[in-house]
Amino acid sequence: MFDRPDTGERALLVHLELDKENDCEDPQEFVDLALSAGVEVLEVVSVNRHHATPKFFVGSGKVEELSAIVRLHKADVVLFNHALSPSQERNLEKAMEVRVLDRVGLILDIFAQRARTHEGKLQVELAQLEYMSTRLIRGWTHLERQKGGIGLRGPGETQLETDRRLLRARIKSIHKRLEKVRRQREQGRRARLRNEVPVVALVGYTNAGKSTLFNRLTSSDVFAANQLFATLDPTLRRIELDGFGPIIFADTVGFIRHLPHKLVDAFRATLEETRDADLLLHLVDASDPRRDDNQKQVAEVLKEIGADTVPAVKVMNKIDALDQAQWPLDSTGGRVDRDAEGLPERVWVSAANGQGIDTLLDTIAELLGTDVRLLTIRCDMQMHSRLRSRFFERNVVENEAVDEEGRPLLTVRIEQHILDQLLSHADVKLSEILVEDHAPHRVSHKDDEFEVNDNDDTLPA
C-alpha cells in the first residue's frame, strides 16, 4: 500500500552535530542502536551545521553527497540520528531514492522486535500508530483520491481520510485494552500492599545490566544480552531476604536519552511499577565513560513518570571491567559509599560474576528496614490470643520460646506502622507486653574504611 522505497538491512548512518544544540546525540550510541536493530552498518557520516534546514534538515549539497554514498554502497536505508519531520523524511527519500528513518523510528523498530508479551506488543503498536499518524500524508499520497463505483461517486471521504479514521479507531481500541491491563496491574499492586510486601524496582540506562542483576538476585532466567533494549516486558519475582523477609524485585525497560514521548506514554502502565515501588535500584554502568550523562537522562525520565520521589540507591555495576587495583573492595568483593548521615547512596557490584551481591542485599535490607523493629514480647495465650494469631498471619515471628515462669515469648521483626495497627486492633499497649527492644545497629560513614565522595560518582584516577 506504500508508494515509498522498500527498506532493507544495509544502512548508511548519518549523525548530525548542530552548533545551537547543547544536548547532542551520541554517535556511538546511535551505532549501538542500529546494531541492536539487526542493521548492517555500511558507513557513518558526520554532518556539522549551524542550524537545520526546513526542507532536508541538512544542506542540499550534503544530500547529493549522501546520495552518492548510497549508490556506492547500494544501501537499503538511511538512518538519521535525529528526529525528522514528516516532510523532511519525504524530501530526503525522494532525493536519495531510498527509505529514510529517523532516530525515533529506529527505536520503535527495536521495540517492535523485542516485544514478547501481549501487553508489550499492544504498547509498541500504540506507539507505532501514533508515530505513523503524522506521516500518512506522505506515505500514502496515492490514496488521496476519492472512492469510485456505485454509491460512492461524488463528494465524500477520500481514501486518506478513511485511513486516518481507521487509524484513530485502532488507537482508541488499543487505549481501551491497555486501560484494562492498567486496572489489572493496579489490582496486583493493591494485593501486594495488603500483604505488606515491599517492591524493589531496577531502573537505569539501557544495557546497564538490569536483567543480569535481576537474574543474579532472584535466580531467574530472564533474557539478558549485551544490546540496547534487551528487556521490554516487566518481570516480577518474589524472594526471601535474609534478616528482613519477603520482597519483590521488578525488572523494567531501560531508559535512553531523548526517549520518545510516544513510547513513554505507551509504556506508562509498565512504568507505573517503578513509580509505586518502595525502593529503586538505579543501575549505572561504572565502566561506561558516558555514565554521568546517562544518570541525568534516567533522572529526567523518572521525573517525567512521577518516580523521582521514590527512595533510591545507585548500584555501580560492571566493576569487573575496572582496574580494581586503583580502588579498594570489602570482603564480599564490592563496596558501599555512604552519605553524611551514614545511609548507603552507592553500592559497587558486578552482576556478571557476583562481586558485591551480598553487600547489595544487606544494603537493600538496611534501606527497607529503616522502619523495622526487632522485638521480644510476652504474648499470653489467653489474654493476647488475637494479637498472637495476627503476628503469625503476618509471618513476622522469628522465634518462639518460654521464659523461666513458662510464659510464651515471641521474637518478631515487624514494620512500625504494622505494629501500631495490630496493637490498636487488639487494644494492647506495647509497654504491657514488651520484654526487649533489639535496636538495629546502623553503620556510621565514619566507620567505613573507604573515602566517600558525596558529590558525584567519579571513579578514582
TrEMBL record:
Residues 198-372 form the Hflx-type G domain. Keywords: Cytoplasm, GTP-binding, Magnesium, Metal-binding, Nucleotide-binding. Its main location: cytoplasm. It comes from the Bacteria. InterPro entries: G_HFLX_dom (IPR030394), GTP-bd (IPR006073), GTP-bd_M (IPR032305), GTPase_HflX (IPR016496), GTPase_HflX_N (IPR025121), GTPase_HflX_N_sf (IPR042108), P-loop_NTPase (IPR027417). It is found in: Cytoplasm. It holds the Pfam family MMR_HSR1. Monomer. Associates with the 50S ribosomal subunit. GTPase that associates with the 50S ribosomal subunit and may have a role during protein synthesis or ribosome biogenesis. Belongs to the TRAFAC class OBG-HflX-like GTPase superfamily. HflX GTPase family. This is GTPase HflX.
